[in-house]
Amino acid sequence: MTTPTRPWRGVHVAAALPFNDDLSVDYAGFAEHVRFLAAGGCDGVVPNGSLGEYQTLTPEERARVVETAVQAAPAGFGVMPGVAAYGALEARRWAEQAAAAGATSVLLLPPNAYRAGREAVVGHYREVAKAGLPIVAYNNPIDTKVDLTPGLLAELFHEGLIVAVKEFSGDVRRAYEIAEQAPGLDLLVGADDVLLELGVAGAVGWIAGYPNAFPESTSALYRLVTSGDAADIAEALPMYRDLHPLLRWDSRTEFVQSIKLSMDVAGRKGGACRPPRLPLPSEQADRIAADTEAVLAKGYK
């Protein structure tokens, strides 16, 4: 769970962002969702992540989303805004905005406008570190084409630029190499469908998608897989199997629409996405809805 000294630990939900019918941001609905996640046992929230569709927001909307999350968060509930931007100076400004709003840490992609080299990546993190908030690095080589390898993460960590990494490479073997090269760097699960594998490998947090729809059950699952107890792992495995047909959507291109649809089926407000994301094809939507109904029928919530 999150602690005052390590507020990036535990289950931080990459929060979906609700829109009104005219696709304006539903700030009241977002504040209610933050409170719902806290009541459901989650430890924090990540506003302005990809699941929050930050790329489609105006600067004013993006800033207000962070402020709304901080204001809605109960005491002890972490707020880790995504501060990704094409330029390091802009990313630093977003980190400064997060600090001024009262956030507890930030999530930072490497440069993603081009395939940046090592020196550019290190310089990027040095610039954003000037804002003063703890930085969780986000390794997503699939989308950014920049791979934060264990060696590069170790360099960033040993220079004091990052405190943790959201690992989204899909290669669960990296957990052990990261621990060897950067002991003390916190490993956070970065994709829902490798929760168990990275949990048993030593992860101390999860930046999560599907808790948007099922916060209580997924938070309980996280605590089981990270406890280090064999009996807990045995209890977790059937839960993981039940949830995996949904969890794997977090690693697919349509993850935003998929999670929002599951939220709708579960009685939450997922709703529409802003362009360029389109509604799911009917075959996909029917499958996700059926899988969500199956999970609900088994009592997950």
UniProtKB/TrEMBL annotation:
It holds the Pfam family DHDPS. One of its GO terms (molecular function) is 4-hydroxy-tetrahydrodipicolinate synthase activity. The active site is at Y138 (proton donor/acceptor), K166 (schiff-base intermediate with substrate). Transmembrane segments: none annotated. Pyruvate binds at I207. Keywords: Lyase. Belongs to the DapA family. This is Dihydrodipicolinate synthase family protein. It comes from Planotetraspora kaengkrachanensis. The lineage of its organism: Bacteria, Bacillati, Actinomycetota, Actinomycetes, Streptosporangiales.
